[in-house]
Amino acid sequence: QVQLVESGGGLVQAGASLRLSCAVSGRTFSDYAVAWFRQAPGKEREFVAFVSWTGGGTHFADSVKGRFTISRNNAMNTADLQMNSLKSEDTALYFCAAAGRRGAIVPTSPDEYDYWGQGTQVTVSS
Question: What is the structure's pLDDT at 101?
Answer without folding.
Answer: 77
